[in-house]
Amino acid sequence: MGKMEEFITKQACQDANKVFPAPPPLPGPATNCRRKGSLMKNGSAIRANNCAATATRALWDRLFDGGYKTDVIIKTDNGGIICAHSNILGMASPVLRGMLKQAKGFGHRRPISIHIHGVPQYAVRAFIRFLYSSSYEKEEMKEFVLPLLVMSHTYVVPQLKRVCEQQLEHGLLTIENVVDAFQLSLLCDAPRLTLITHRMIVTTCKAVHETEGWKAMKKSNPALEKELLESMMDEEHGRDFMMQKEKNRKANEQRIYLQLCQAMEALVHIFRDGCRTIGPHDKDLKEHQTPCDYGDCCKGLELLVRHFASCKLRVPGGCIHCKRMWQLLELHSRLCTDSNSCRVPLCRNLKEKIRKQSKKDEIKWKILVKRILRTRRIGGAPIFVSSNSNSSP
Hints:
The protein is mainly alpha-helical.
C-alpha cells in the first residue's frame, strides 16, 4: 500500500501542474427545466432548484387529482363532493385546521365532512387545488375570481387573496362585475381593490347603472348606493371645477401672450416713432401730444426705459426692473426679422448672444415666441419687420 500511495501522490502532483480544459456543460435535458428569473452564478443558471419546483408542483397536482389516501370530504352545492387530505388543508388554512379539529373533537370517523356552500362547485375545486400546489388555470380564475376572493378571505389564504386582487386589477375587472367586486372588497378587507373599483364606478357611472350588479345592490344595500351616488356627484363637480380651472388658466395665458405682443409693438413704436417724452434722437417730441394707440402699455414702457437708462445695477439679475427690460429686449430680438436696420437698442447684439445660449433656455424662448405669434396670428410679424420705417404702426 505504501508504493501505491506514493504513486498516487506523484501522479496528483503531475496533474496539478497541467492546464486542463474547462469541463463540458451539463447534459441538454437539464436546460429545459430553467425558468425565467433563475439565479445566476458565474454566468450560468442554477437549474436544480427550478426543476424541483416544477416537479414538486406537478406532484401536488397529481396528489390532488388522484385522491390518494384522502381523509376529508368537502361537500358543495348541488351535491358536489371533493376529496382532500386533512394535513394539507390544515397547513394551508388556519380556518380549515380549526374546522378539522372541531370535527375530530366530536368523534367523527374518517373521512371527515366539511361543507362549503354559496359558491359554485368548480370554484371550490379550484380553491382546494390552489391549497395543494399554489397554481390555478387561467380560465378558472377568469370565471371564478370573485368566489375565489371570498374563499381566500374566509379561510385566510393570503397568497390566493393577493392573486385575485392582482388579476382583477390587471384585466379581470369589467363593467359587469365592478359593483360586485366593490362590495366584496369592502367585506374582504381589500383596500386597494376598493379604491380601484370605486374609481372605475364613478368614472363609468352611466354604463355601471345599467348592470345587474348595480340593480341588485340597489335592492340589497340602498345605503351603499346612496354613498356611491354622492361620490359620483362629487366626481362630476370636481371634473366641472377642473375644466373651469383649466379654462381660466388658458384664458390667463392668452391674456399674458396678448399683453407681451402689445408690449413688443409698443417697444418698436417708442424707438421708431417716439412717444410722449421718449423716442429716437432725431425726433422732436412734445410733452403734451395726442395719446397713442398703445395707451398704458406705452406709458409703462416709457417709465421702464427711463429707469433702465439711469439704473446703476443694470446688469441682468441686479435689478428686477432692469431684468424685465432685458427680457423684453431679448424677446423683441427673437421676433425681429431685420436686426441690421432695427432701431430698438441692442437688437443685433442680443441676436448674437442668443446663438450661444444653452439648449434648455433656447427651448423655453422658442415656445414663448411660438405662442405669442399664434396669439396674434402674425406669422411674419410685420410690425417687427418694419421697425426701421418712419411710418406709424
